[in-house]
Automatic annotation (TrEMBL):
The Endonuclease/exonuclease/phosphatase domain, residue ranges: 236-330
InterPro entries for the chain: CCR4/nocturin_mRNA_transcr (IPR050410), Endo/exonu/phosph_ase_sf (IPR036691), Endo/exonuclease/phosphatase (IPR005135)
Pfam families, alphabetized: Exo_endo_phos (PF03372)
Protein name: Endonuclease/exonuclease/phosphatase domain-containing protein
Classification lineage: Eukaryota, Viridiplantae, Streptophyta, Embryophyta, Tracheophyta
PANTHER family xref list: CARBON CATABOLITE REPRESSOR PROTEIN 4, CARBON CATABOLITE REPRESSOR PROTEIN 4 HOMOLOG 1-LIKE ISOFORM X1
One MF annotation (Gene Ontology) recorded for this entry: 3'-5'-RNA exonuclease activity
Domain of life of the source: Eukaryota
Gene3D superfamilies: Endonuclease/exonuclease/phosphatase
């Protein structure tokens, strides 16, 4: 950004990423704070954000910058560095070796795909290189900058960023700076955050359900059917783990990116909706997530709701929040 040499630095920008391993399709929403050096309040300012993706070189001509990527390699989860080429001619010239790797990868996936046929479909479409094709890495308006002797491609200019398949296997860089609103001069040094390489989230595993018959033998429960003239209904009870509590060492066995709310929320919603229950009893529903996510999303599915949050709220991220219980029901 070129702001580091300014003599008007009056504050500093502190940036904390929710996790250091970005996930394709999962929004990165950093926590940003501005601290003033010589007063309690920072002067009127605006924040400028720039996201960059690590530039990579051709897998064949190692000194050439990559401009295209083989999308088949990405789909088949082959080593990402082998998918980059400096030109379409380079890609087509290397197609024979590419085809062999694609077929081997497709056969491997097919053996572990439980007969779903997807991998075999990929294998059959390996007849010629245009069947898979490539994707351009840089658009006409792409900006390439050099930082500490390394080239980076600008991919965003907002606070948040959602990694795409183009970012897979590459690191991201966030540069943040505070700028005087009226004069347009920098008030802080540039804060720099560099992530680990972007990953693709693993496929969800099916739930291991406990059969009721097993409980009959171990506990004294009465499972005899009892009917009512009013009919039947289904109830789901689910503790979704409030983001407030998904912190520290309590869940050290779980990677930080998998605990992040931006990753968990869509998986939770998909599973909850999938049970198609008449009544949903959700615990540890954070107040802001209830208002901004669960209530609008489940209302679309025909649910009404009653929400009761705890009495003592916690101040975090510039707002008061706390968790509670939400009961969604369909009449």
């Amino acid at each position: 950004m070129g702001f580091q040499d300014s003599e008007s630095m009056k504050c500093e920008v502190g940036v904390t990423l929710p996790y250091n391993t970005p996930v394709v399709g999962c929004e990165i929403n950093p926590n940003v704070r501005v601290k003033c050096f010589d007063s309690l309040e920072a002067p009127p300012h605006s924040l400028i954000f720039n996201w960059f993706r690590e530039q990579t070189n051709c897998s064949v001509h190692h000194v050439e910058v990559a401009t295209v990527q083989c999308i088949s390699c990405v789909t088949l989860k082959l080593p990402v560095k082998e998918s980059y080429h400096c030109s379409t001619k380079c890609f087509s010239d290397a197609w024979k070796s590419h085809l062999a790797r694609h077929r081997h990868a497709a056969e491997t996936v097919s053996k572990t795909s439980n007969g779903d046929g997807q991998a075999l479909g990929k294998l059959r479409s390996c007849g010629s290189w245009p069947a898979f094709g490539y994707t351009s890495l840089f658009g006409e308006c792409s900006v390439v900058v050099e930082r500490e002797g390394k080239a980076w491609v600008k991919v965003g200019s907002s606070k948040t960023y959602v990694p795409s398949m183009d970012d897979f296997g590459l690191s991201l860089r966030l540069e943040s700076v505070a700028v005087d609103c009226s004069l347009g001069i920098p008030l802080s040094p540039v804060n720099i955050k560099v992530t680990d390489p972007v990953i693709i989230a693993p496929a969800s595993r099916p739930r291991c359900m406990i059969q009721i018959d097993r409980l009959k033998k171990s506990r004294n429960f009465n499972f005899e059917a009892q009917f009512s003239n009013a009919g039947t209904f289904s109830v789901l009870s689910y503790n979704i783990l409030s983001d407030l509590y998904a912190r520290g060492g309590m869940y050290s066995y779980c990677p930080a990116w998998a605990l992040a709310w931006e990753y968990r929320r869509h998986n939770l919603l998909q599973e909850i909706i999938g049970y198609d229950a008449d009544i949903l009893c959700l615990q540890e529903v954070q107040s802001d997530h209830f208002e901004n996510f669960f209530k609008p999303e489940l209302t679309k599915c025909g649910y009404s709701v009653v929400y009761k949050k705890k009495t003592k709220e916690v101040y975090t991220a510039n707002q008061y929040i706390i968790d509670g219980c939400a009961i969604f029901y369909r009449l």
